[in-house]
User: Fold this.
Amino acid sequence: MRKSRWVGLAVAVLVVLSGCAGNSATTEGPPVTAENGTVPAAGDVQTAALSAMSSVDGYTANQTTTIVRQTDGANQTTTVSVSYAVNRSEQALVSNRSTTGPDGTATETRYLVDETLYQHSETFTAEYGTAWISRDLSDNPTRYWELSDQLWRYQFTMGNATLSNVSTATVDGRETYVVTASVDTDELNTALRESLDLPPGVALTSEGNVSLEATFWIDTDTYRPVQVERTLTETRTNDGETVRVTRDVKTSLAYGTVSVSLPDAAENAQAIGDQ
Assistant:
């Protein structure tokens, strides 16, 4: 497996299992709700949320992605469920992923610790002779970390979007501001490439005939997102056949202290390098 494939796989999920820190703004404090009870302006919510996200040290997230591939002849559905625990201060995380599709269900655990990506899946055994593999990311640790940090993705998306339609809703007992993000995918892709310093030839999932819609539920006290929903729709033509791929992503987040420890079994992971 060559390095370009590793980069491509990571970038492919950037917008899909994303969003992200882009044109982040800061503020002296959260916006104040008007005396008559109306919600703050969308721009004020955006500024306060970007500032709040940038100060987060640890969080957990649960994410479900439903991918529907529609063709003239048939539909195919794949579901990806991922749980994350992230320590941003130490740039460490663990994720547990389950992918269910036409060929069954596959599971994978990932650790990102000390600029090294560790992956565990029984599917690796046939190719590598072991269920644990690892890759040194020290050639560009910032890029790989930001690709893996879910909250960075949300910051980037929000920082490169126009927010509107502020309303209120209760999520798991928390009062939130619900805000819609309008994203120009061409501008977003340009910003992503510049921010991540992506090498030529690496394609972004959001490039091409693609639309992206995002909605954020922002805690009214902390101005951190507690829920994010995104829909990415792509239409293309393959050999005269129209293919439409829709990805619906829902993420729930909680904040607090997170500790990430590499299991003993990972210490003997097979290093893949640039294969």
Observations:
- Confidence is low (pLDDT under 50) at residues 1-28.
- The radius of gyration is 19 Å.
- The chain has one domain: 3-28+39-263.
